[in-house]
Amino acid sequence: xxxxxxxxxxxxLLVFVHELGHLxxxxxxxxxxxxxxxxxxxxxxxxxxNETLYTIRLLPIGGYVRVxxxxxEIVDLKPGHHIGLEFGxxxxxxxxxxxxxxxxxxxxxxxxxxADLDHKLMIQGYExxxxxxxxxEVEPDAMFVMDEKETQIAPYDRQFASKTVSQRAxxxxxxxxxxxxxxxxxxxxxxxxxxxxxxxxxLGKLTExxxxxxAGLQQGDKVTSVNGENxxxxxxxxxxxxxxxxxxxxxxxxxxxxxxxxxxxxxxxxRGGEEVGKIGVFQPKEKSFTTLATxxxxxxxxxxxxxxxxxxxxxxxxxxxxxxxxxxxxxxxTDEVVSMxxxxxxxxxxxxxxxxxxxxxxPLPALDGGRLLFVGVEAVRGKPIExxxxxxxxxxxxxxxxxxxIVVTWNDIQRLFL
Length: 418
What we know:
By secondary structure, the protein is of the alpha+beta class. 41% of the residues lie in helices and 27% in strands. The protein has helices spanning 2-28, 165-194, 211-214, 234-242, 289-315, 327-340, 345-361, 368-381, 387-416; strands spanning 33-49, 52-67, 82-87, 93-97, 108-116, 122-127, 133-146, 149-152, 196-197, 222-226, 229-230, 248-255, 258-265, 267-271, 274-278, 285-286. The strands form 5 sheets. The chain has a 5-stranded mixed beta barrel. A 4-stranded antiparallel β-sheet has the order 11-10-12-13. Helix 2 packs across helix 5 (289-315). The longest helix has 30 residues, at 165-194. Its cofactor is Zn(2+).
């Protein structure tokens, strides 16, 4: 149960932050954000606020913000259509009923001759059995009703395509940007609470009844050598100790300006299938203003570089597709992280957040990076690619991504039983 709750919180947080970036910059640009969804598939929970439908869906494989103009949302009103119109206090149409008009007794039924709900916001037509042509102005936030389901119309200036290249690019980039920002914030908070790991060869907190404590070592002792082998950093100190499992080593230390030599019998732990030495000491931490202010950025940069390196190896074939993990693999890894230590949980979330940001910036169709690529091409050539062609590319890309997700998930499930 702790793993289930940890996974649900982690998944919800990562997707929420990512999609919140898209939503914020869509609204800032004046786009009509129709839906903010966490998950895909059937709705579990939903509510409407400020023109946007907020939903939680069944399948934990991502999320989305649906902006007006990206998908067909309402049917075109063609000449000859019989529709019902309801009017607001301004006298303009505030509800357009396409079918089941008998359920709206106050609706005024007309036969459409011409309608423009994108630019002029008007409907021309005739009342039934009348010859006089009538012109009706439409509210910019009027509702389009079909099968008793209401959808707000989206004038062209509320649609994604109407915005400038920079506004659209920022709206697409905002999701990954928020994932990087989340990681920076997490690392900053961890640094504030725990301190920043230092590479100095000074002993940090000692474990209860560990070899170091039993030998009389103290927190703050600075190690200068191990068995006469000089060490100047924490990494060097750990590497020497790990190579001496179950041995007595002589540590040369400096305590309060005095040089001492302390014999310590190392313990043993298993790592990567091998036995390595340990003495029960944590890495030292520091909380200087400079390290606290920069740690979130430097740690995020380090992990970003690592992920990009592995991504490059995947593209060049140095890493197999079997190394990828989907939701099942991430759940299993989360279980291992939580079972080892809850102290590793928040860094794990930060790393996954960075990973999500990077993957979404890969220039593949259906991902944010793929859509940014189309916006970039438009900026270079001075005109957009035909929406139908772009939609086909994204549809094919989405289908291939779903196929990849199935393959990766199958590999994850197989690994569980090996």
